[in-house]
Amino acid sequence: MNDKTRIVNISAENSGFMRQTLQEVYAALVERGYDPLGQIVGYLLSEDPTYITTHGGARSLAQKIDRDELLKAMLKEYLSL
């Protein structure tokens, strides 16, 4: 059993990439009439790419985002750190 704590590091550059990518995915979902927040959350929880439309290449974009890095960036933003 490994009881060491894993450390996840993200760069500011990666954070900017993730923000831009999510904005593009969000816009594509809105254009197709989906609930973008629900679809993105479903994708993040399941890693099932079919939650994201292929419209505008959104599915391919979403798959370029590392979930661990995204969750860390989101928590950092949410906690105003």
Can you describe this structure?
With 81 residues, the protein is mainly alpha-helical. The protein is 59% helix and 0% strand. It has helices at residues 12-31, 36-46, 58-62, 67-78. The longest helix is centred in the first third of the chain and has 20 residues, at 12-31. The termini are far apart. The relative contact order is 0.17.
Give the low-pLDDT segments. none
Count of all domains = 1
Q: Between the first and last Cα atoms, what is the distance in angstroms?
A: 32 Å
By secondary-structure content and strand pairing, the structural class works out as mainly alpha
Strand content: under 5%
Tell me how many strands there are. Answer: 0
Count of DSSP H/I helices = 4
Please describe the biggest sheet, giving its number of strands, its sense, and whether it closes into a barrel: none
Could you say which overall geometry the principal axes of the C-alpha atoms support? globular
Following the backbone from N to C, one meets helices and strands in this order, namely: HHHH
Rg calc: 14 Å
Which range best describes the helical content: under 10%, 10-25%, 25-40%, 40-55%, 55-70% or over 70%?
55-70%
Mean pLDDT: 89
